[in-house]
Design brief:
By secondary structure, this protein is α/β, with parallel strands linked by helices. The protein contains 6 helices and 7 strands, in the order βαβαβαβαβαββα. Bound molecules: glycinamide ribonucleotide (GAR).
Length: 205
């Protein structure tokens, strides 16, 4: 029998992608994976409420704003890594997580951290490209289509190996909000597919 893969889902906001993963876990669509915990980098986000409602441990680790940005990222990353070690986490899923992970966690979990991004990478990725900013940039560029990407996380921002993408058309009259909504629907499918794929690989390794 294959080993259980403990999954940590990192969140910063509404948590609709977390909800898709929770639903998938509950219907057995993550194979031998199970959501072991959720971790937010800010208090009061709805994602944490979703975790509580589903009886998933909801952890909070906020950045230390007294530190300069480089050390702040390192400090938060090291605290997340410590929790991963303590909880025997096999896969980390970034589901709308807005802090940047650096250094040891990236190396120790190489090939075992995935992210969902709301564009067709490599287009419209990188530092500062998140949420509605991405969709506005797509509209401003006059793109005929957009979508979402699930990719491995490496030391860059949105640069890791692409696992899968789902596409949507950009429609006449779209706003950042309407485009975001269409893409969110695809993200909820993509994040489950990407997580299940990684679970299968990790469980077999
Ligand atoms: C999602 O659209 C996700 O792709 C995006 O944040 C949103 C979170 O929504 N992530 C990024 O932009 C990361 N660069 P959710 O909280 O409802 O899952």
């Amino acid at each position: 029998m294959q080993n259980t893969v403990n999954i940590l889902v990192l969140v910063s906001g509404n948590g609709s992608n977390l909800q898709a993963l929770i639903n998938a876990d509950q219907r057995g669509a993550l194979g031998t994976g199970r959501i072991a915990a959720t971790l937010a980098d800010r208090a009061g986000v709805y994602a944490m409420e979703r975790a509580r409602l589903a009886n998933v441990p909801a952890l909070l680790q906020t950045p230390n704003k007294a530190l300069p940005i480089t050390q702040r990222r390192q400090d938060l990353s090291d605290r997340v890594l410590q929790l991963c070690r303590e909880r025997d986490i096999g896969l980390i899923v970034l589901a709308g997580f807005l802090s940047i992970l650096v250094d040891d966690i990236i190396h120790e979990y190489a090939g075992r951290i995935i992210n969902v991004h709301p564009s067709l990478l490599p287009k419209f990725g990188g530092v500062g490209m998140y949420g509605e900013r991405v969709h506005q940039a797509v509209l401003d560029a006059g793109e005929p289509e957009s979508g979402c990407t699930v990719h491995l996380v490496d030391a860059g921002t949105d640069t890791g190996l692409i696992l899968l993408q789902r596409r949507v058309p950009v429609l006449a009259g779209d706003t950042a909000a309407t485009l975001a909504e269409r893409i969110h629907h695809e993200e909820h499918i993509a994040i489950v597919e990407g997580t299940a794929l990684m679970v299968t690989q990790i469980a077999a390794s």
